[in-house]
Backbone:
């Protein structure tokens, strides 16, 4: 996904849409978005004297279509990493042609001779603050009248991580630890010069998997149209890894209590976040939800919540957005973990630059997350989850990274055994977010709409369980 951050048709559509909605800020918006989505090209252009970088400039260079590439990451300087001033794409690229890496002893000649870069040890590549330069994003809040009235925390995985047990020394796991699988055996990292046999250790595989199967499929299926040189098989490999990640490492569910009271059944489903930040993570179009279905001995349905249509939309949603639930006792309620942005007057919005606040943020916090922990004013729990006594709390202890949803429904004289099936589902591009985007009519929006119509936006299964009730 990082290599395709500029080609990404969803990004391109959203960029044009934001510009269409706030045309007076066109130059500033394009320059800002391209800071992270075409970082190499923009850095080079600014270095060459361009005041601010534009989409039309980016469209002409391979430095843009290469997205977040090797030479960008490996030239990030260590100064200021982790500080506010480094966030929102304020990485600092040096001018001394040094390529920073994790090894203290490096054979430098081939790189000097072939590309005039000096490979150099840089402790920063191993630090979360390194990723935080682009993975912490504050966007300007543009009010109705066009004035900028503040800043909005659009993406904060690094700030969430700081407030997790993974940031503590006992339980330490960095972004790199989870997103770059490590090989501890010695690895021959270069085949040049041919006689060179030295090995290095450890070796970090550049997988960078997240959860975006939907756009990876789109990139794969539209390679020609998007001008991607990447063979289909490589996308397939990344898709496979991403699916594996989602259903093995992202989150899990379990049934923790079942109680039958005459004709009513109560089932408590617990969801546990296993990532190092909120789940779902990052960009506000993500969502995860619980689908639960109970059937009787003849497989007749007794209750269902969270069903979805063939195009991946959840049935019987509330007209604006579904609130957080503690108890679900009607089939038109569904537990959706998501962030919902509101503008300065508190109206729901899908426009990034209009977002002033979160009306809802019940994404599952990472293990260890405390309401009063570091940076919590930027990453708070918003909406009804804030008063849910079992959200991120177990035995009065904060920081469980879990939520318990109680399903309470009528058994309608059903005969046992009963089968309860629960699924945790994930979708990176929520239909509500896309519907809002598709209101605009720009070339990139139309292109994305076509690719979307041909794609498959059904959710990914993160975890599923079946529970049998026989007495
Ligand atoms: C998103 C940032 C990023 C990008 C893009 C990136 N790297 Fe890295 N690379 C890293 C980090 C971080 C490490 C070290 C991890 C650590 O020390 O925890 C690393 C380590 C390395 C190493 C040491 C050996 C190893 O893999 O551990 C080499 C060589 C390397 N990168 C080359 C490349 C090349 C070539 C590319 C482009 C094809 C590239 N990198 C793209 C972040 C990046
Ligand atoms: C304990 C392991 C762990 C740590 C630590 C961790 N992550 Fe993740 N991260 C995951 C898993 C698992 C996923 C896949 C689930 C998902 O997409 O939300 C993920 C997903 C992501 C995504 C993809 C979101 C998407 O929308 O596809 C991003 C971006 C990300 N992590 C960035 C980071 C950054 C930056 C850090 C360090 C501040 C970090 N992660 C630390 C485990 C971790
Ligand atoms: C120069 C900016 C930049 C840096 C530095 C950076 N990233 Fe990213 N990263 C991005 C952008 C932009 C995207 C989104 C691409 C898209 O979806 O179009 C992204 C996406 C991701 C994803 C999502 C993959 C998915 O399937 O959705 C993961 C995981 C991730 N980055 C991890 C990291 C880690 C770990 C580091 C630090 C070692 C890091 N990134 C450093 C800009 C950056
Ligand atoms: C500070 C760096 C940064 C800036 C600036 C930035 N983005 Fe991103 N963007 C990211 C990262 C990182 C991700 C991936 C997060 C994730 O996977 O959840 C992302 C993801 C996205 C996605 C989702 C892509 C997908 O494939 O699902 C869209 C759309 C997007 N950005 C649009 C924009 C627009 C429009 C702008 C300018 C208003 C912008 N971004 C500015 C870092 C940035």
Residues:
């Amino acid at each position: 996904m990082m290599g395709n951050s500029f080609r990404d048709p969803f990004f391109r559509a959203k960029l044009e849409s934001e510009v269409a909605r706030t045309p007076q800020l066109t130059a500033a918006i394009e320059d800002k978005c391209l800071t992270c989505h075409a970082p190499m090209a923009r850095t080079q252009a600014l270095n060459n004297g361009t005041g601010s970088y534009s989409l039309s400039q980016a469209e002409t260079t391979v430095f843009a279509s290469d997205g977040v590439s090797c030479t960008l990451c490996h030239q990030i300087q260590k100064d200021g990493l982790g500080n506010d001033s480094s966030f929102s794409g304020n990485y600092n690229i040096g001018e001394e042609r040094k390529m920073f890496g994790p090894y203290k002893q490096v054979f430098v000649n081939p790189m000097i001779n072939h590309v005039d870069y000096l490979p150099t040890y840089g402790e920063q590549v191993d630090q979360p603050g390194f990723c935080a330069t682009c993975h912490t994003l504050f966007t300007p809040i543009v009010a109705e009248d066009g004035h900028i009235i503040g800043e909005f925390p659009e993406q904060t995985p690094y700030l969430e991580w700081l407030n997790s047990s993974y940031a503590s020394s006992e339980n330490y796991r960095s972004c790199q630890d989870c997103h770059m699988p490590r090989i501890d055996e010695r690895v021959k990292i270069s085949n040049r010069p041919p006689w060179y046999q030295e090995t290095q250790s450890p070796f970090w595989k550049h997988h960078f998997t997240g959860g975006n199967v939907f756009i990876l499929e789109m990139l794969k299926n539209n390679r020609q149209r998007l001008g991607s040189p990447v063979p289909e098989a490589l996308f397939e490999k990344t898709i496979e890894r991403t699916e594996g990640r989602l259903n093995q490492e992202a989150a899990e569910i379990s049934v923790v209590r079942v109680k039958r009271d005459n004709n009513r059944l109560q089932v408590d489903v617990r969801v546990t976040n296993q990532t190092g930040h909120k789940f779902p993570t990052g960009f506000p179009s993500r969502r995860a939800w619980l689908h639960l279905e109970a059937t009787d001995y003849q497989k007749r349905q007794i209750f269902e919540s969270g069903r979805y249509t063939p195009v991946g939309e959840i049935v019987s949603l509330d007209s604006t957005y579904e609130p957080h639930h503690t108890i679900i006792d009607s089939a038109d309620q569904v537990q959706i973990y998501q962030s919902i942005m509101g503008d300065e007057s508190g109206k729901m919005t899908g426009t990034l630059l209009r977002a002033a606040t979160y009306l809802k943020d019940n994404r599952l916090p990472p293990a260890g997350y405390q309401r009063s922990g570091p940076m919590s004013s930027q990453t708070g729990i918003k909406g009804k989850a804030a008063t849910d006594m079992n959200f991120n709390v177990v035995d009065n202890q904060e920081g469980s990274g879990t939520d318990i949803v109680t399903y309470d429904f009528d058994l309608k004289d059903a005969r046992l055994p009963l089968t309860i099936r629960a699924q945790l589902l994930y979708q990176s591009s929520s239909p509500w977010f896309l519907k809002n985007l598709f209101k605009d009519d720009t070339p990139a929006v139309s292109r994305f709409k076509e690719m979307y119509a041909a794609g498959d936006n059904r959710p990914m299964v993160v975890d599923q369980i079946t529970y049998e009730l026989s007495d």
